[in-house]
UniProtKB/TrEMBL annotation:
Family: Belongs to the azoreductase type 2 family.
Domain NADPH-dependent FMN reductase-like, residue spans: 1-140
The protein's name in its UniProt record: NADPH-dependent oxidoreductase
Superkingdom per UniProt: Bacteria
InterPro entries assigned: Flavoprotein-like_sf, FMN_Rdtase-like_dom, NAD(P)H-dep_reductase
Length: 187
């Protein structure tokens, strides 16, 4: 199974990107193929329905990788109660053909306590693109973000967030495997 992780931050060392790398490592350990598309390293043009982007290298790669993915993880920082602008821009470039019938996990990293607003918005977009939202999501904030910062040296509660992320990723993979099995494809 191929899992696509789309991470939407403009920060070089964003905690949301570090969480995406952590998720990719875990999924690889589970024997699944993972592609991580980092919108900081591979920026996209601003979306406009009046423009053709057929020749844009990063956008072409994003389209192809999303089309071939069996399951998707969207990871964004939460800015001002919303997903990042680069994540929304990337989603505007995509359509139902990229999400239809695919299991999608939403995750967020917020400067405050948790990033619930961005997660609700991601799930609304996924529904509109006919993806299958997982019942769980990952939201880290406050001290939990320290786990994904460069100078991480352990902190009280660090294992708790690692356990939560592992459980949610396992649940996501189990659902994606069921949907992508021959019996699930018949649904």
């Amino acid at each position: 199974m191929k899992v696509m992780i789309l991470t939407g931050s403009n920060r070089k060392e964003a905690t949301s990107t570090k969480m995406a790398e952590h998720a990719a490592h875990f999924i690889n350990q589970q024997g699944e193929q993972v592609t991580l598309f980092n919108l900081h390293k591979r920026p996209l043009p601003f979306y406009s329905p009046d423009e053709s982007y057929a020749e844009h290298e990063h956008l072409s790669a994003l389209h192809q990788e999303m089309l071939t993915a069996n399951a998707i993880i969207l990871i964004t920082p939460e800015y001002h109660g919303s997903m990042s602008g680069v994540m929304k821009n990337a989603l505007d470039h995509l359509g139902q053909t990229h999400f239809n019938g695919k299991v999608v996990l939403s995750a967020s990293s917020a400067g405050g306590a948790v990033g619930v607003s961005s997660l609700l918005q991601l799930q609304a977009v996924v529904r509109n693109l006919h993806g299958i939202n997982t019942p769980d999501w990952i939201s880290i904030g406050g001290m939990q973000r320290k786990r994904f910062e460069i100078e991480y040296d352990g902190y009280e509660g660090g294992q708790e967030i690692e356990d939560r992320i592992r459980l949610v990723l396992e649940s996501f993979l189990n659902l994606a495997r069921k949907i992508n099995s021959p019996a699930g494809a018949a649904l």
